[in-house]
Amino acid sequence: MFNIDSAPCFWETVTVRLPNAEPESFRARFQVMPVSEFKQIDLGDPDQVAGFLETTVTGLEDIEDGSGPLPFSDPLLARLIDRPDIRAAMVRAYVEGIGRAAQGN
């Protein structure tokens, strides 16, 4: 019997490729967005992408600022979303994570 999870989530590694530096990674927990909603997002619109990430990212791990690990918070998420390289990496991680889940079915 198949049990439908009403609020599926998954953890995915987010790899940020910085210019002139080695890639760095952290982990993000994503709330799965229904396809009917995701397909309406214009990934070329910065405001829509920010809204998508604010809705789907529900946890962050392995992020520090030099003084130690940073716990998940809305200000931390906003700080990450404000960086175009990190924003793109989080969207890429979501799409790749959903794709891997689909391949497993």
UniProtKB/TrEMBL annotation:
This is Uncharacterized protein. It comes from Hoeflea phototrophica (strain DSM 17068 / NCIMB 14078 / DFL-43).
